[in-house]
Amino acid sequence: MSRPPVSARVVLVASSTTALAAGGMAAAWVFLGRSGFPFALVTHLLLMAWVSSIVGPQVRMSDLDWFRVRHGEPRLYSALGVRLFGKLLDAIGWNRVIARERGFSGTREGLEELDQDTRRSEVGHGICLVVTAAVALGMLSTGAWHGAVWLVALGLLVHLYPALLQRLLRARVQTILARLSRTP
């Protein structure tokens, strides 16, 4: 029996993990309540697991203008503390885990794949931010403002800052790739 095409397998994995994530969030709502840190933490862990099944290494991000880091962005991100956030991730060892996972080879092709990795990560964290906002609005509509605040606060830490960190890394990668393309 032949294997289904990659696109069919991706759709199957994405739809099944979507159902699991939604079920997990519902279970967290019931068993942990909807008003505190535990619910927010479990929700974000489920979101990250779900998104990694959708925006995995098999997904190629097109060269949209959105992914081009503008000249002033790195300075803005530094002012917002994104570099400090990166240093915190270095200190706790998270960046070593991600570096092993990415397996950057140090070659030009490796730089292009690193660029793709930063795009996928940024998109994944962006999707998580959108879902976080939707869930928080739903929580506010039920009067669970305390839980919505925890959800949004944790979302800023585990999704917004990592997405901005990806853009900061991509700015360096784009600068190097631009220099290499000018070299004969």
Automatic annotation (TrEMBL):
GO MF annotations in UniProt: acyltransferase activity
Topology relative to the membrane: Single-pass membrane protein
InterPro entries for this protein: CrtO (IPR044021)
Ranges that cross the membrane: none
Pathway(s) annotated for this protein in UniProt: Carotenoid biosynthesis; staphyloxanthin biosynthesis; staphyloxanthin from farnesyl diphosphate: step 5/5
Function summary: Catalyzes the acylation of glycosyl-4,4'-diaponeurosporenoate, i.e. the esterification of glucose at the C6'' position with the carboxyl group of the C(15) fatty acid 12-methyltetradecanoic acid, to yield staphyloxanthin. This is the last step in the biosynthesis of this orange pigment, present in most staphylococci strains.
Record-given protein name: Glycosyl-4,4'-diaponeurosporenoate acyltransferase
Natural source organism: Nocardioides marmotae
